[in-house]
Design brief:
Layout: E1 2-6, H1 12-21, E2 26-30, H2 41-46, E3 54-57, E4 60-63, H3 65-76, H4 88-117, H5 128-146, H6 159-173, H7 181-191, H8 194-201, E5 205-206
Parallel strand pairs: 1-2, 2-5
Antiparallel strand pairs: 1-3, 3-4
Helix pairs in contact: 1-3, 1-6, 1-8, 4-5, 4-6, 6-7
This protein binds glutathione (GSH).
């Protein structure tokens, strides 16, 4: 059975949402990275970077949320969650998936790292204006793209919608300004999907490295 190792709410939500959209059976095992669980030898053997999410599928172990998303869509999607190879939609799919993790997410992650994720001695103050500047620019470009669109890519829900919606939820919790009613409506449509509401209901069991 597929095993997702992560913790809610973190980037493992993205993978869990995709597993739910694909209706795949999986086990969700929780690790508490704030308590240092992701630095145990057993966990580092799965991801030497000490980060979640990690997915196991048979002998395959894979990390990086975007890579996991693509693996699941390619392997189990059967045409769902990812546009067809060789189409303009597929090109934009990659563009926006990478945009989500490299442009939209990065200012949020910078703020989080310097608030709690980095060792205290490495954290620096005063990053707020740069974080806001970078996030606003990335958000405005996204908001322009979303005008008149139901989904991020073409006429269908895809992994990109998962990543963008998750990251916008993170931005909201981080107190970013997002004054664009059509983006709020988009997030409302995506989070109304049955697969999204099932995430919260799933029982989880802790990761046992033994
Ligand atoms: N680029 C990675 C980032 C993974 C990541 O940073 N995960 C966080 C939780 S959302 C984590 O494990 N942090 C622990 C740490 O930084 O030590 C991905 O998208 O999977």
């Amino acid at each position: 059975m597929i095993e997702l190792i992560g913790l809610n709410p973190t980037r493992s939500n993205r993978v869990q949402w995709i597993l739910e959209e694909l209706d795949l059976p999986y086990r969700f095992r929780q690790v508490n990275f704030k308590a240092g669980d992701t630095h145990s030898p057993a966990f580092l053997a799965l991801n030497p970077n000490g980060k979640i999410p990690v997915l196991r599928d048979g002998d395959l172990v894979i990390y990086e949320s975007a890579a996991i998303a693509n693996y699941l869509a390619e392997t189990y999607g059967d045409g769902r969650l990812m546009p067809a190879l060789g189409t303009p939609e597929r090109a934009h799919y990659h563009q926006w998936l990478i945009y989500a993790v490299s442009e939209l997410e990065q200012p949020l992650w910078t703020a989080a790292k310097h608030k709690f994720a980095l060792p205290e001695a490495l954290r620096v103050d005063g990053l707020k204006p740069a974080v806001k500047f970078e996030f606003d620019r990335a958000f405005n470009i996204l908001a322009d793209w979303l005008k008149g669109r139901e989904f991020m890519i073409g006429q269908n829900f895809s992994c990109v919608d998962v990543f963008i919606t998750h990251t916008l939820g993170w931005a909201q919790k981080a107190g970013m300004d997002m004054d664009a009613p059509h983006v709020a409506e988009y997030v409302g449509r995506m989070t109304a999907r049955p697969a999204f509401s099932r995430i919260a209901q799933k029982e989880s069991e802790p990761f046992n490295p033994a």
